[in-house]
Specification:
The complex is a heterotetramer, with 2 copies of chain A and 2 copies of chain B. Chain A is built from 17 helices and 13 strands. By secondary structure, chain A is of the alpha/beta class. The radius of gyration of chain A is 26 Å and the shape is globular. Chain B is of the alpha/beta class. Chain B has a 7-stranded mixed β-sheet with strand order 2-8-7-6-5-3-4, sandwiched between helices. A 4-stranded antiparallel β-sheet of chain B has the order 11-12-15-14. A two-stranded parallel sheet of chain B has the order 1-13. The longest helix of chain B is centred in the C-terminal third of the chain and has 38 residues. Classes of the chains: A alpha/beta, B alpha/beta. At the A-C interface, helix 1, helix 2, helix 4 and helix 14 of A face helix 1, helix 2, helix 4 and helix 14 of C. The structure holds pyridoxal-5'-phosphate (2 copies). The site of one pyridoxal-5'-phosphate has 14 residues of chain A, from helix 8.
């Protein structure tokens, strides 16, 4: 309410051209331009005082570097300013709703950051003697226990570095299990819904499988008839996201699992949407053989502008023996890290150097302990409640793709924009002007001009109401033919709309010294 | 619960708007008999309580900084300026997603562009991507890429490649029918890799400084590989070495991969780290991972976007060059900041300081009766031969507050290298640390 | 250069009204509005999980609180967002030049922040047994040593909490010394230049002195004739800032000191401008009896939007005995904190609870050790070089008040704006649009429409060049009669120009519940 | 030097523009014989080296968190949520100056407005300022303000006022000819302050919880003071107590001052802290310190500015209400964030939890032979009487890892209260801490 009172009524009028005469610097108040480090720094300047060298003779055996690398250096004040200015051109969860569907952009507690920086976790080397890392191994074992409890699965592989890496881990375990049965040559086909995230088919292919799409039914779920059609002795398994990428729970999941198992295949579940059901339902009860968990989604480790993530994979009894190296075992009061094949374990190999994303493990366990069993269930309920609330409110002007109730996401398509000349991308860019990060656009592929909204449990009702009011306003504007607002968008962002086509046509992937400089350098 | 904004009042009001009687009505698609399972875990805890529990675990570890620390073998302890950790914790960097909406992600995109350029310069290559998970997965991806480029399936690995890198590569490559050829690891004499390259070979993968700390110039090997139509992939685990050593690009490498952790990132017991991936421009469309490129906005202003995404899973699906999606964003930022602070002058001085510390350490250890330094040349890591199994020596030294290095028996299990110890020194080691190490080693031998 | 290339040429044209149609939310891209916590939170919500109470009976003896306090609570995600959004409406050193004259807004190293948070400093109580705080006392003693060395003074009082508090400390010591001589009743007049900072006269008055202004001469310095005129048996001392608030070094400082001493008075030096001469000249050599040092200026402890600061006061032999309690003494290998009168010390009393701004001491020592003697001297030279460079470049269009060379500040007045209709404040607000925090305006009072620019050593030449180009551009615009740009300024800041007169006329100093609410609450 | 951007090339170029031959030419006004003195201090150091030196000092202190900790006496150890420290380190808050340019300082100004409101609500007063240095200086300023309001010069202080607050007040007030009247400190029986108030009395200063932890209702005293035209100033050192206790405003206080450190701020060995200062609105023009007020901008939008500055030194100079300039900005922010997180529900629960811990501690100590708890009522701090000097007991307990409290002999030197020990408990104390304290105390007595 008072939000709308804060002078907006008059803002429109008061704007005249004088208000927008360009500035000399190109800055606009607190909106600051910043050049590249290559334009700010130089080869002499440094922002680090490295202690002085002595005359110890070098033993580099004749392979030392001859000429300049060409790296600019910035003094500490210049570097601080450079990166702070850059940061201010970003949107972030800490600034407002970040409703990217399938990304679970929830609040990132700072307690997690604090804990991950405790020297006993951050300043420990992965190859230290076991006696000096018992606490680290205990933490991994404890997190593993929590993950197994929450999923109802008997085993978990901790080393995958992100969701897609977890998919690789799970599908490699499936491949190993198939090979162990001597069916490696024959079971080569993996089923996946058309709505699947790109990493699913990419992963299957990277494991040497062929991918076969399953169509969706009218309700946005797996078409059971078509699915059963496709089952056969050459089927290695199915990769299914549940709740699926339309935000819907696959009602028939148990039947799907049974059918796949009956056909001799395995059930890989993409756990990216686990946030909808943590504490509400256990993948283990649904017949899942392998599922990755994006700690950087469900368990709040920060996305950091694209990573790092962490993708532990829970495994069924059938796949557990094939879990990759290394893994932690508890023996009475001590913990051991197993780095080589042992006993009757049949590890399919190694996925990464060392033991996985310890920094993310600490954060995730900090999140899980803070919420506890009760808090995690409540979080899932709130995530689902928020999504259904958004679905209910926005349906007044926007077109929901499927019947509710939905789970943690609300999926809309562009039917409500029909004949307005406004497309999903224009609508998204107009949201930027309103102070919001757009929802996921054009995914999943099964609906036209998809807009997939995932509010997560971190949004308050107050925040969601303003968000919905703004989207309803934009929808009405579009229908009223005010297309400028959309085609010109974003108008207030650090940049106007960027030309992605030009970028791809002749890619400029790095800074190159301006020609004069280059010549000068050559001349030297 | 402190993280959940909704009050009971809110929840009721929202259920009304939705027209649902209870939250569980929204879960109607979940098989009723499976809904709300018993979970055997404790309830929510206060910050204080969580801190106590986690600090208790942390206290059971020996922090590298609390010991005389000389362990490397793929992860290195360097001093990271306080500025780096301050900046990467800026909300706008820490809590943003992959820059899918470039107009409000220029902060992330510009540093990725700077990162790509820094990596290209350091490796001496034309282009670099926006990071892989770590050095080992970058190495595996490079081999898969070489397969796509050459349409060949035979891979030659150096025996002195970090064994984790070799294992990860083998795990990925064999899965799609590639065969791996690799000589046994050894520190005596040089391996004849050129001799192993044939017309079926897609690539040869080598490392410098290698896992034993030895330095190489692969110029000849590059020629040999190219002569057979194979690619040369050069890996490294210590990026600081590039401040002192001839770059892989200069040697003729086609793809360069390595671990960037040393710059900007803590040890973190193994992760998260940042994989560096650089290549010749002509192969860019076969590269895995994200690429950031320059463009202009509707007003003609310079800006940055993710580009060439037709290589990637979200567009190309099962035809993608890799399945990677989330990469090491924030670790790239840490790398970019630290490297911007160092700059040419700083990184070169830092590299030489690391080398000097290692030389001093080598001399100190060589002076211990029964200890022989294997390398004649090295950067900041080298190998010593001990009169008894290194594993026992390392454990004995740990009790004396010295983290002595990586035992050959752990790095290469069952390879008969149990008497070798791989030792690293960095700018963080004081002369007292070095003296303490030598003294303690003398005692335990 | 490339800064100017980045599309600005076209930016002007491309702007049409559609670009500025108001948004629904009132947000503008990343410029986000945010209400008060009282409008965001409520009495039920909390962002802290306080462990549960048990049934321990209370022993509050009947004075427990009856009704609500009325404090809104926010969940952690809401609180994070609230304050992050607020923060983005601030300008800061980390964003660009902050050339407030007399404020020494230099780079604040994050190493200092890290060190101040080490538990051995941050989590220590001021009343712990001495045996448990030896390191804290050592740090105070070490910093004291560095401060005495840099100033050439024999003693230092560490407890003052900021510059003005340091002034109080110094003037109280002077008062005590005068009283000790039995001249308390007669020596009641303190001399201070008209250009003095407001805290000087305020402090003198707070110590019961009367203040007598000394005029400035044509060169911007103390008018020696007038000064000597004013000396007499009733003069307690002089409060002089050196370099003075015009950024000029008081050439005759030694003569001034000698004259004051000859007259039986003391020389208080305001050290706010110490940054100009650290390592270049020592107050002790200039005849100073007391000088406060703003650790939050000269020694880089952050200003934090108005504090906390720290103002240790160095003292001459004459004043040392009167230093306030408590103070640290070193005895062989151990340190002791003296909290009560001892030996022949004659402490004038106590200035604050406990021992002073420990958190700032750690930061300042971290700064001093990092720079070392060589770095601090270099820093002062660069600060002075930067100021003279700005003075030289800006003099092309702006009117410098006094002859150079100047010290760490460049003082301009508004003569160059004569007849343009643009005033100093308008010029300052136009700087905001260009992305700069204005310089200090209308201080010192000795020149008309003063603009006091202090770049500090933290600015690079590149940054200063852009800054100067922008100010020269604005000066030309003003002279060219483009007054809109100035009168309408700021046009791009989070707020347009704010009405300070209205604020003072009927002050609203706190949030009050909207009437309906108030009624409702009463009704309960 | 890492903090200095100018290169030698820059310096030369700039000197040219200035027309100076050398930097020292710019220092020509400094007496030549005094320029560039010999400084006996070491040269610049790397981050690593500075960290080592300072960490070595820090290691010589016993951190409160590493002991069983029960010390208060004006500074209290509470748990501060990680969010607080994260936010106050935002560059925009940390590295900004006093908000003299409101259009680009709304972040600071809005939280100051929120802070002032929170303080007014907690104390039950009409207005509060934007902070003083700490509780003790706030107390002294309140007394000076009372002098201005009443034009009187006689000040009555309670004997149970924190002695540092009393000393700071005395040091400031006597300097301008005010006389201080104060009964001796004591824990037995109540002091008759009303009886000390006469027609010359400007104010009476009392504290609750007082320095011994006793609780008071000053309603009657307020009436007595007002009857004589004097002001009642109520001080507190533990702001958390206001979550559980009747507010000074309700009791009829005219000015309320106190220490806000408990909320949002660490112990920091005594500073920086944050002084809270609230008063009745009719006295606002006599208040010291900054005030933030609401206004509108040129577009009619709500905004905030510093206001009523005609009270302040930069305008009113020697007629100012105080000489204070820089105050406790960032500590106010920490307070505001922590209090916003707690809210009504949190602060009340936190207060009761503190009280319960103290009650448990009191019972545990009372059970130790020879120990008597003096208070019958208290909040989270109380006083015990010991069979031997508390200073010795405290030192003995420190060796056993227990920080036991504030000895009467240190708090009130020479006042004959050496057998008293002032003990505090907060939410950070575990039941194990309490048991450990009692057990250790039994041993040393
Ligand atoms: C449904 C789904 N599966 C898999 C992934 C891949 O996870 P990651 O990015 O952690 O590799 C994502 C991430 O966006 C996703 O949304
Ligand atoms: C010249 C001068 N003297 C004294 C002061 C007061 O210092 P503080 O704000 O630390 O109390 C200042 C601060 O602006 C100042 O500029």
């Amino acid at each position: 309410m008072s939000m709308n009172d804060q002078g907006r009524p008059t803002r429109g009028q008061s704007v005249d051209m004088a208000d927008f005469a360009p500035t000399f610097t190109g800055n606009r108040g607190l909106r600051l331009k910043e050049d590249l480090i290559f334009e700010v720094g130089d080869l002499e300047t440094t922002g680090v005082d490295v202690p002085d060298l002595d005359d110890t003779p070098s033993r580099l055996g004749g392979v030392q570097r001859a000429d300049d690398i060409g790296l600019p250096g910035l003094s500490e004040p210049e570097a601080m300013r450079h990166f702070v200015r850059l940061s201010r051109n970003n949107y972030a969860i800490d600034m407002g709703p970040f409703t990217l569907g399938s990304c679970t952009m929830k609040h990132n507690p700072r307690l997690n950051e604090k804990m991950a920086r405790v020297k006993g976790f951050a300043d420990v080397h992965p190859m230290q003697p076991e006696s000096t890392v018992q606490g680290a191994l205990e933490l991994i074992d404890t997190l593993a226990h929590w993950l197994k409890e929450m999923t109802g699965m008997p085993a978990v592989a901790m080393s995958p570095k992100a969701g897609a890496h977890g998919e690789l881990c799970g599908m490699m375990a499936i491949k190993a299990a198939i090979d162990a049965k001597g069916e490696g040559a024959t079971r080569t086909r993996v089923l996946a819904p058309e709505s699947a995230h790109g990493t699913n088919p990419a992963t299957a292919a990277q494991c040497g499988f062929t991918v076969d799409d399953i169509p969706a039914d009218a309700s946005g779920r797996v078409d059971m008839a078509a699915f059963k059609e496709k089952l056969g002795p050459d089927v290695a398994g199915i990769m299914l996201t549940n709740p699926n990428t339309c935000g819907l729970f696959e009602k028939d999941v148990r039947e799907i699992a049974d059918a796949v198992h009956a056909a001799g295949g395995y059930f890989y579940c993409d756990g990216a949407n686990f946030n909808a059901i943590v504490g509400k339902a256990r993948p283990g009860d649904l017949g899942v053989d392998a599922m990755h968990i994006n700690l950087h989604k469900t368990f709040s480790t920060p996305h950091g502008g694209g990573g790092p993530g962490s993708g532990p994979v829970v495994l069924s009894e059938a796949l557990a023996p094939y879990a990759p190296l290394p893994y932690v075992v508890r023996e009475a009061e001590t913990f051991r890290i197993v780095e080589n094949q042992e006993g009757d374990a049949r590890p399919f190999g190694r996925l990464t150097a060392f033991h996985g994303q310890m920094g993310m493990f600490v954060r995730a366990l900090s999140y899980m302990m803070s919420h506890g069993a009760d808090g995690m269930r409540q979080a899932s309920e709130d995530a689902v409640l928020n999504a259904n609330y958004v679905m209910a409110r926005l349906s007044a002007e926007m077109t929901a793709s499927y019947e509710g109730p939905t789970m943690h996401e609300a999926l809309f398509d562009d039917r409500f924009l029909k004949d307005t000349g406004v497309e999903t991308i224009d609508f998204a860019k107009a949201m930027i002007d309103e102070g919001y990060h757009p929802m996921t656009m054009y995914f999943p592929l099964v609906v036209h001009g998809a807009m997939l909204i995932e509010p997560t449990e971190s949004e308050s009702k107050r925040e969601l109401d303003t968000f919905c009011d703004a989207l309803l306003f934009l929808a009405r504007e579009a229908k009223a033919g005010r297309t400028d607002r959309f085609k010109a968008a974003p108008r207030f962002a650090p940049k106007r709309r960027l030309d992605e086509t030009a970028a791809a046509r002749k890619p400029i992937l790095r800074w190159e010294p301006p020609v004069e400089e280059a010549v000068a350098q050559a001349a030297e | 619960m402190r993280y959940l904004p909704l009050s009971e009042t809110d929840r009721k009001a929202m259920l009304n708007v939705i027209g649902a009687g209870s939250v569980d009505d929204l879960f109607q698609d979940v098989p009723a008999d499976l809904l709300n399972p018993e979970i055997n875990l404790p309830d929510h805890k206060s910050e204080m309580e969580v801190e106590r529990a986690l600090n208790a675990m942390a206290a059971k570890n020996v922090a590298a900084g609390d010991a005389a620390f000389f362990l490397g073998a793929g992860a290195y302890r360097h001093h990271v300026p306080a500025t780096v950790d301050h900046i990467i914790q800026r909300s706008e960097f820490l809590t943003s997603y992959t820059p899918y909406q470039p107009e409000i992600a220029q902060g992330t995109l510009q540093y990725l562009f700077e990162f790509q350029t820094q990596v290209a310069l350091l490796t001496g290559m034309e282009v670099a991507n926006a990071s892989m998970y770590d050095g080992s997965t970058a190495c595996a991806e490079a081999v898969l890429m070489a397969g796509r480029v050459t349409k060949r399936k035979r891979v030659v690995l150096s025996g002195a490649l970090h064994p984790h890198y070799a294992d990860v590569t083998r795990t990925n490559a064999e899965l799609i029918g590639q065969t791996i050829v690799q000589p046994d690891p050894g520190v005596d004499g040089a391996e004849d890799l050129a001799g192993l390259i044939d017309d079926e070979t897609s690539c040869v993968v080598v490392q410098t400084p290698d896992v034993f700390g030895r330095l190489h110039d692969f110029t000849k090997l590059a020629e040999a590989a190219h002569a057979k139509g194979a690619l040369l992939i050069v890996a490294f685990t210590e990026v600081v070495s590039l401040g002192a050593l001839k770059s892989p690009g200069e040697m003729g490498a086609d793809i360069v991969v390595g671990e960037g952790q040393s710059i900007g990132n803590a040890l973190n017991f193994g992760g998260p780290y940042v994989g560096l991936f650089a290549a010749r421009k002509k192969y860019v469309r076969q590269m895995p991972g994200r690429l950031c490129g320059e463009t202009t906005d509707a007003e003609g202003a310079r800006g940055y976007v993710l580009t060439l995404s037709t290589r990637e899973q979200h567009i190309r699906r099962d035809k993608a060059t890799s399945n990677i999606c989330t990469n090491s964003g924030l670790c790239c930022l840490a790398f970019t900041i630290h490297m911007s602070l160092l700059g040419e002058a700083g990184v070169r001085k830092l590299a030489l300081l690391n080398h000097q510390k290692a030389v001093k350490l080598a001399d100190a250890l060589a002076a211990v009766p029964g200890v022989a330094v294997v390398n004649d040349a090295f950067f900041n890591e080298f190998t010593v031969r001990l009169p008894k199994p290194a594993v026992d020596v390392v454990n004995a030294l740990a009790d004396k507050g010295v983290i002595a290095g990586a035992p050959g028996g752990r790095v290469f299990p069952g390879a008969g290298l149990d008497d070798l110890l791989i030792v690293a020194a960095t700018e963080t080691n004081t002369d007292e640390d070095i003296a303490a190490y030598a003294a303690a080693l003398k005692e335990v031998l």
